[in-house]
Amino acid sequence: HATSGYCLDLGCGDGDLALALAGATNLHIYAIDNDPENVAKARAKLWNPPGSSPYHSRVFAAAHSSFSSV
Description:
Strand order of the largest sheet: 1-2-3
Radius of gyration: 11 Å
Strand content: 25-35%
Low-confidence stretches: none
Distance between the termini: 25 Å
């Protein structure tokens, strides 16, 4: 099982997997979803309140409208 390195979470939804991985590993996680509302939910889970999360330096969440064509 990988506990360090990088993880790409395509279709991250509301961020549950990214949050679980961040808590259980030292992975740098890129959580991507094509729905901006899902990304907002993921960011709220990962960084609420802003600046308080121990994961802010290694978890990134973003919306990308064309990841499904990759």
